[in-house]
Amino acid sequence: MDNILTSLGYTGEHSLDLFERNSDLGVYKTIFVCVGIYANNYVIGATSDEATALVNYLNTGGRMYLEGGDVWYYDPQYVGGYNFGPLFGINAVGDGSTDLYTVVGQSATFTEGMNYSYSGENSFMDHLKSTGTGFTIFRNANNSDTVGVANDAETHMTVGTSFELGGLVDATGVSTKAALLDSIMHFFGIFSTGVEEITKSDVITPKLALYPNPFSKKTDIRYQITDNSQKISLKIFDIAGRLVRQFDDRTIRQSNHITWDAKDNSGRRVSSGIYFVHLEVENQRQVAKIILLE
User: Fold this and answer.
1) What CA–CA distances, in Å, run from 98 to 119, 123, 255?
2) Whole-model pTM?
């Protein structure tokens, strides 16, 4: 996970101890916590300093990813683990069984189109349901059980899974661990391609909409800009932050939309996967994720 995020252009710290690098978790834009799968899992105790620090981090606007096969149901029920469910929009409904072989993303979420074979340490995962502001982002294809939930609670943001991201088997297009990690970061409002962090409090003048999304042949990029805007740019980047397509100023100003035919600046069709459309007007920018299917 650390290697992939670094390759995508993100900067962070990796540690086997929550407090090894910094006792003030508030210095981090997001925290990824991996507690493992039975029988090699770690229990975050209900009264532990770790639980207290993580809860305080979320209650002060933090963004956190948490994965573990037993952290949601078994640990709080039977071994004194902290119940993170309410903060993550998760209602843990039961202990799992050996049935997780394929993990599928959900339409109308940032995991749309994702489909992974699973080969983790074992296939025994807690069964989840989304609750409150939480929404399902991954299901077990074998029985439709929820195994991943994202939550935008306004006060904080979370992603919780009962499977290990490291157990996902990379396929093609959007179905890679890199695509998933980058999508999680963008859900949290964190970007790696030189784009400033976008939060709910930011005032963004340009308006940007994409349809259809996902798409296979072409998509319409619609935007709103003022006629007197002097600095305008519309660029498309791939998931690694490489510039794929740039539209010239005159083309942008001619209309309120541009059609992208899934080709790069050299006229070659790009591969399926996740791309990011950057619209910049003066010194303000909006970024939208788009998914190209095969």
Assistant:
1) 12, 5, 55
2) 0.73
